[in-house]
Structures
1.
Amino acid sequence: MVAIKANAVERFIKRPDPDITAILVYGPDRGLVSERARALLGHFATAPDDPFTVSILDEADIAKSADGLIEELNAIAFGAERRTVFVRSGSGAAPSTLAAALAAPREGILLVEAGDLKPSSAARKAFEAAGDAATLPCFADTPGTLGELIDTSLAQMRQTITPEARQNLLGRLGADRLASRAEIEKLMAYAGEGARITAADVDEATADAGELSLDALVDAVFEGSLKPAELAFERCLQAAMAPARILAAAIRHALRLHESLVAGEGGASPERAIASLRPPVYFRRKDSHFRQMRRWSESTVRRALELLAEAEIDGRVGHMPTASASRVLLRLTLLPKPERR
């Protein structure tokens, strides 16, 4: 078994080891898992949708016994040197089937796409026990890998990006590789071939009105600005944004504010505390974050998180999520707090 380290996965995908005939692609970033599995499928099969050279199976197809999977792996590939069997196994189910197929003589390539498998997963253990298999972990993107994704994508259309726009874009990416790629491609199409992309381009191409209102809402709440908070809350509701999503955004923001306050109380300057946050604070929101750090303390943000969590539960149990969200956001906006010196 070859356990490919996370930082070597891209190199392996571009040039897989010819001695490896079984590959497990897994991890928490389902978009990245799917993208890499598809890239490997394209390497092994010139026509991934050709049923004469590729067999695409799911968990239900392999759940009953290993015989069917082994038969597919040894089936003749018309028009190709060998058949590729691509198994989508989100939870790593049917590990005994996979283990049997890995242990049996086979002519074809076995490629398995799975979800976030723990080290104790039977599917991972099956691949780790096979001498001609490799496991490829796909962890969430870092600012570094997202930067590489931006650069390689823009290069395809001979585009460049300003440092300000790059930071802006990085702040909007990262939850899922496919979603990140879609946002980048949307920006590329908006800017046009050969363009120099600015921060304004990023705003226009990637932010919808609801997202901008949500950012404005959490900043206004934690700054204590009542009228802007009320207006932003109404805009979020007009954009059909669920109250649970609004509260989740407020909780995420409070956690980031708490992190920067902890760094500040540990001796870091406000500038260094904010710069340490990942993903980076969007440049247009930095001034607001500074003001929030003066208004809040580590202990009061912890209290805010408690109130937000209670409101989230109250919205689910009481079946009045909009009212619960409105009450807690108003309370946080009006909460009197002395300026931090």
2.
Amino acid sequence: MATIELLRHGREMGARLAAELAEASRVCVAVSRAEASALAVVDLVRFVERGGELMLLAGLDGYATETALLRRFERTPGARCRVYHALSGAAFVPRLWVLDSGARRVVYVGGSDLAAASLAQDIAVNVRIEGDASEPELERPMRLFEELFWSELSWPITEAEEAAYEALRAARKAAVERAPDGRAEARLVSLVAQRIGESRGKAAARRHLLVVTAKNYALCMQTKSFGRRRQAELERYGKGDPFFFHVTGRGGGLRAMGMFVGETFRDEAPSFRGMDGGAQPFRKKFVVLGELGKEIRTRPILESRRPGAPKHWFNGFVQDSHTLSVEDFEALRGAFVAALAEEQGAATPAKS
């Protein structure tokens, strides 16, 4: 009997695909866009080089597909690539994946294209179906793929078509880079992020100060995840909890504001290390609500709220990550938002 799962994030599908490629003998993919970036998540080149069969059908809508990737596959005997020409004006967005391994078949259908963003970053819902290839739930998706792949509107791309397409793709990319104004977009994102930070600061069950080294901070921002040695240690960080990163060391202070999202997951990457050098395999994703180009000092912001405090109170305050009171969080948020606005204002050229 076929099993059906609902995957709630692109990275779930990407991780499953990467593992399933090792056993698959044939992979059929119909997507709206195909990008070389996807190979960092699912190594289809290695798959075809070891003798696997690949049938790839990509759309050209929006000029997102990279024809160089199709050409790369075409140099391998086990790969066949086509593009779908939706001449009716309808967009080509099937996002259908079929993997065969003997009599077993796995099908994915939903929101993920052949691109690193789709398979590692995007919030994309996909349905995964697994079972015997002869079962109706597994047979029909393959039949649909074959209809699309061998359709009268599906063809291998010619050199003339590729040249014309790539010229238009370059022109579109240049136009997108010119408008809309990237600074205006950044201001809108910042406005929304500030509203979320203010709202969650009041409504969340907890608020946090995450104390990290500069090296650990850079890794957290690169992966958009925060880690701990044991899973239980991450349970204090709830979905929707806002936080600040305080970077330790000379010149350190508040550097970024974020909010936790998603569930705890495990990643054994050796680069995930705590301030004491210990492994931090348990991670929790976050979104960035604002990042400063340079840290602002944390102590002066909070010192006025602690009349009569011991001389060295701040050393204990930033000894390790901990929760913040609503009042402390609001004081830090106000100073952070002001510093961020000052930086953004300085980065905006004066109008003549």
3.
Amino acid sequence: MKKVHVIGIVGIPANYGGFETLVENLVEKRSQIEYVVYCSSKGYKARIRDYHGARLVYIPLKANGWQSILYDFIGLLKACLSKAENVLILGVSGAIFLPIFKLIWGNSTRFIINVDGREWKRKKFGLLQSLFLKVSEKIACKWADVVIADNQEISSSLWNEYKIRCELIAYGGDQVKLIDKHVEPVDRKYFFALSRVEPENNVEMILESFKEVNLPLIYIGNWENSSYGRGLRKKFASASCIRMKDPVFDKEELSIYRSYAIAYIHGHSAGGTNPSLVESMFCRMPIIAFDCEYNRYTTAGLAEFFCDTSTLCSKLTELNWNRQGEVVARIAEFAKYSYSWSDIVNKYEKLLK
């Protein structure tokens, strides 16, 4: 049985984001792989050592922010000193060290990296951070044995820039369970949005639009994690139609919010195949997404799209709901074909064997 060391996530069980959910599914559905997963001790009060047969190794640093660079370095070093056959790196922060590890352990260890989105393009990063991520991405594409992209647009842009052929493996979403698949539109009470509260997710644009049209919105996000989020929460506190809720990690609670939503509002403008968008495609509700190539590819162009406050307001007030039943069914069928975890795990296992 092949052993794979996983670097670059907060840890499992998943309590942070898409990469964590990916690894959780790889571990839970594994058939031919033995996993060692490096976790941040800062992210867990209880530090279990085994999760569904995967060995968990803790590093006393945060997995995000500036500490992520050292966090990934330590993970890579531990993996290579353990004579890992395969190292799966999630994100490009640790790729800055890849030439060193390849020169020393390149003959015995294979390095596979999922580059996530074009991280250096995100609005939340300053000039130095963007430059670092750009350099890291370039190094990843040059030095990794295998590069994974989760979206055709990411794969195409990396080919155009670095002439690197990526393995295209998307993200699963069929773990989402609705509490009642037969809720009628008349019983649905609100629009629903779920994201990290960051500028590239067009959070303010969405809030402005709902305030203007005075329609009910529940928006789940990490409002208290940044001055940007706290500022938005304060700015829109008086908008009675908007409820800004803190992060929800309980799957049953999220299912309740999704099950009774009129439609899902998706503002992400960067990052490839976004987990919350994929998950919403299994929820049999209309999707109104920000108009960018990533979102069009992910939804096969079947969603409704907006590009600014004006177009979002128009979608919210003028959408042909009679047509949406057919569209929602087509989105769900496409999702079932493209984003099932069993298929995603099989693709990773074939690659990692």
